[in-house]
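Reply to dn_fold:

You asked what the input looked like. This is it:
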Amino acid sequence: MHSLDLPEPDADAKAVSAQLWALIADEIERLGPMPFQRYMELALYAPGLGYYAAGAHKFGAAGDFITAPELGGVMAEVIAETLAPLLRTQAQPTILELGAGSGALAADLLGALSRRRALPDRYLILERSADLRQRQRRRLETQSPEAMDRVSWLDCPPESGFDGAIIGNEVVDALACARFEVSADGLREVCVQLRDGRFQDCLAAPRASLAVAFEHLQRELDAPLAIGYQSELVPELSPWLASVSACLRSGLVLLADYGYGRREYYHPQRSRGTLICHYRQRVHDDPYWYPGLNDITASVDFTALAEAGHGAGLALLGYDNQSGFLIGAGIEQIYAHLAELDDRQRLRLAGEIKRLMLPGEMGERFKLMLLGRGLDPALLPEGLRGMGQRQML
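and this is what came back:
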């Protein structure tokens, strides 16, 4: 969809975007063209102004996009089934959720773990947005008040180690990415310039971090990327994962997101990259349209994520699409009672499960990766041991 076809924001939203626009424009005027990665960081996270830092409704049917936990409690039930055997073996288990969004997954997961008598001693939420913290707190106080004494919010990963699990749903795709183009003169970095009162792409010499990441990418691909090829990289992926997982003494890291293995991500036919924007349930391709009002995201290179895990001392335990994960974790057994429900409940649950699993919905595009440290694979559901599609990495 072209940005001209999008619904017009209201006056208050435009005013917030104008403040962010001025902030970005001032930095460009002072320092010159801005790496797109820096632009994306400000557009998403600038205090009080960025997409995730301001107060607009983002998640669910009334927001800009829907995540799996927003559909209902099915994903939380399956994750609980995955984590419960591990948590029951630990003396003081802890769960760390990276970026809890609306709080839907946290609220549903605490309830599902309580029903399995596997509640963690602590449920930590790493959340940089003050606005989202408030939304998460309100949801948890309403939906899971009995578990509130276990929940706390963090600005940075905990310094003290714990045993348990780290979970992240659609977190990696929200990391600011660098954009690049292969030219006849070599690698160029996509930057943002200000021209005629508008932000526009321009090309510049790459920063050292991007050049190193690109050299590694080229070595790993079957053939060099063609001149004119554009895509994205997250040079900071490895240090980010090392930072958020250093606190895990033993346990599981579960990351769910949309993306591909490296060769599929950088396929010759995907020559314009994967960057997209979301606004009011619509997808468009203009990241400069009212900065701060729409989500900007790129797909995840799960091969790079597995490599980052290896570098952080995390073993790859499994990788599969969402449908494969749900089946492996035992969704058929969890919802074996479906036929016993009344028509309304059965139809609602069946619709949610179909949306999570069908290839044309979330079942194929969304992937899950399981990483572990000091974890006995026998503690995972049998269907997840060595799960799925590692050959696609």
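The chain has one domain: 1-388.
Hope that clears it up.
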